[in-house]
Amino acid sequence: MGNFPKGFLWGGATAANQCEGGYLEGGKGLSDPDICTGGNHTTSKRITPVLEEGTFYPSHEAIDHYHRYKEDIGLFAEMGFKTYRFSINWTRIFPTGEESEPNEEGLKFYENLIDECLKYNIEPLVTISHYELPYELTRKYNGWTSRLLIDLYVKYCEVLFNRFKGKVKYWLTFNEINCGTMPLGNFLSLGILNDGTKDFMNQVDVPQLRFQGLHHQFVASAKVVKMGHEIDPNYQIGCMIAYSTSYPLTCNPDDVLLTQERNRVMNHFCGDVQVRGEYPSYMNRYFEENNITIKKEAGDDEILKDGCVDYYTFSYYMSTCQTADPEKLTAGNLTGGAANPYLKASDWGWQIDPKGLRYTLNEIYDRYRIPLMVVENGLGAYDKIEDDGSINDDYRIDYLREHIEQMGEALKDGVDLIGYTPWGCIDLVSASTGEMAKRYGFIYVEKYDDGSGDFARRKKKSFDWYKEVIASNGEKL
Fold first, then answer.
1. Catalytic residue flag (residue 176)
2. Is 467 contained in some domain?
3. Which of 91, 258, 421, 468 is positioned for an S-S bond with 11, CB 3.0–4.6 A?
């Protein structure tokens, strides 16, 4: 290959609520994921605003990274990680989100984790908010529907920026912020819990509340970017988008126009605001046709303009096809659409499209011309432990190899790609289904959907493969 630049940030990614565990330890408060039950491939996890005795809540233990982070980071170092993307659990710092002073024990935990990374020359890549809103902010204010959360978030970030100055360079304000454009984002990313069903994936949806909450996140993010640069000019603060590449199913102009609209609203809108610093004109019609009125305060537009991000990161797992023909719509891909007849699918029905990653990188870079990182990508699959203890995940190696090859092609195309952190570098709890059986990692964790398991770590075949990829800077795949 020989395409990856010197200093390319190879690594892996996790999220606090999916890997830490340590439920309510060290002064931690109750977060939204802590009231989500387990689920599986066919049964959605539920939201139980009051914890139910005898109900399994996966985040309470997760994979016990809270107690085993040194072991895990040691394994990441053995693979040769240049960066580790992890998130900070807001409720470890401010248990309800409204305390006047931060929780020192929580800050110390993350300081120790960061120091452990630096010991191995692993660059911390910190997601400030990754689906872990303090539950008290959901209960009292219905999450980000309230503008009060802006100042609470800014206070939280100010504590982090001052505490970890000189140790952390790369920050992300909100994980997959554009999930707020979909009903999926109600509880997941916005902490909105509307009356009605407590099915995690199918919340009662009020688009006005979702998009108002998203506006509050835009303002909060922009304020934090400006503040971060004032605290430390070396800080690089980015956005993070759940990119769901869409193609028209056919060349029927109806399919083409539908695809354009979907790409604008879901894939481009949030990036346009966070990179360009203003609402794009194409959203005016969308808001009008969906009875959405964004309530802004004086100065909001200036705040957005003054708080543009330094770099753009995104997750990429699949592509979808769009069609105006309802009979061709299919289940499977997380964000809907129609099946692409040219692609295979994962065990969870997500269609596998490596070339779509090259296409996506070019689309994003042509649009924004700022550095890019792929901070989530990977294959969720059932892994089997063989009689000799080995885990031969060649299917995962094939998936990652093909996507890395296409990143190399995008670099040839001229894309400024600076890092790659595959998702779930160690097995963890699935955000969408709440299960452990959907495994992504290079490292197997002995933890199962019924809550059993001793948390033992095992290297999969992909562990040594990825180690060689990093050592060769992407030349040996």
1. yes
2. yes
3. 421
